Amino acid sequence: MQIAKRGGIGIRSLGTIFRQMDNNGNKKLDIEEFTGALNTFGIFAKVCEVQALMKFFDTNGDGNIGYEEFIRGLRVPLTPRREAMVKQAF
After folding, report:
1. Sheet strands (E) in the chain
2. Which helix (H) or strand (E) covers residue 13, if one does?
3. What is the dihedral of CA 20, 24, 25, 29, to 10 degrees?
């Protein structure tokens, strides 16, 4: 919701936001970059909450959040109707 408040939640805007959060330019967010990004969006989480969010987003377990992990983590799950349509299409 905080991202949407800042002007959109499309793939292009999410890519821009992710690049802005990636201070060292390695195309991944470490815990410090992620914490700073949360703070920028007005989310001041406790250390244990940030660690839980990192664990949620970091699906490959490398200790960083890659762009694909970031997008997957923000994606809303498919409704049963949409899931059925995707299965039918493929």
Report:
1. 28-29, 65-66
2. helix 11-21
3. -70
User: For the whole model, what pTM was predicted?
Assistant: 0.72
The model's pLDDT over 67-85, given as tens digits with 9 standing for 90+, comes to 999 888 877 777 888 888 8
DSSP letters for 65-78: EEHHHHHHHHSPPP
Give the other-Cβ count within 10 Å of 17's Cβ.
19
Q: Are 23 and 36 in contact (CB under 8 A)?
A: yes
| Residues facing residue 29 across a β-bridge | 65
Map out the domains of the chain with their CATH numbers: 2-89 (1.10.238.10)
The span from the CA of 74 to the CA of 65, in Å, is 12
Q: Among 60, 87, 90, 85, which residue's Cα sits nearest to residue 72?
A: 60
Contact 41, 2 (CB under 8 A): yes
The token pair that represents 10 in the structure block: 């499309």
